[in-house]
Amino acid sequence: MHLTQFSGTSTALVIMAAGLGSRFGGGIKQLEPVGPNGEIIMDYSIHDAIEAGFDQVVFIIRKDIEDAFEQAIGRRIKALCARRGVRVGYAFQELGDLPDGFSLPEGRTKPWGTGQAVLACRGMLDCPFVVINADDYYGKEAFRLLRDYLLRTRREPGLNLCMAGFILRNTLSEHGSVTRGICQVDEALRLQTVRETKFIVKTADGAGIQNGEEIIPLDADSRVSMNMWGLTPEILPVLAEEFVKFLSRTPDVSRDEFLLPTIMDKLLSSSRASVQVLETSDKWFGVTYREDKAAVVEAFAALVRDGVYAADLYSE
Fold this sequence. Notes:
Blueprint: E1 12-16, H1 41-52, E2 56-61, H2 66-83, E3 87-92, H3 114-119, E4 129-133, E5 136-137, H4 140-153, E6 159-167, E7 178-185, E8 191-203, E9 206-211, E10 214-218, E11 223-231, H5 235-249, H6 260-269, E12 273-279, E13 285-286, H7 293-305
Helix pairs in contact: 1-4
């Protein structure tokens, strides 16, 4: 799907759904039902984005899960979106989708990362867009905040980007370690640095990094990125340029990943981009481990009881 020139108020939701979720027992965790009528997390994200005014949805998936994805969500979402004037398309993240002069390294089996995922949308996006993970729930407020910011700044020169800011303690799993982008911001909530940090665990005191038997304490009130970025089409050639640099310089081309937080940190350090952190009061939750699912199901049930969502999600 090649999208037409945006109208000035057009915005796209880009959902990164290419991962199979190895920590989720081998199933496609993005397609696990969590709502009262079998809704998956993506249903709520798409609903919230449409409610906020987004008029395009792009799924980033792998070609080998296209059939399962289409049966589980694609056909249904296309029909729902069509009735609301929202266009739907697919972008495919593939290991072999590499710049000229590069070939797939021997032994490389894992995806190249979130930066390459967004790069898979080149040629499809010519309006501001918000990128999210398929298996994370961000809440309604974040979609409104990011869309409003992107439309307000779209005519300003340079890369004026944004991200949804969450509090670390509210993004941890009870069942294992997680990876988060730990952020530093200035007084105006402009992002200064973001560090992709692995092996973060919940502790009695808040949070820490699991390092063997040792746990290195972290400030549980730190702002973190949950890969909800507000971007513009101008980022796509920059990603293409940075991907070439990554492939040329990465020390372990068989394992290293080209990740959005790392790219953003590099653009910030070279003053090539500005990223506004937009804080949301909504609570994030997601399914990282199979044991997380019960809590997520109950969280959506509570949102329905509280009237945040109708039991029949798309009846609103």
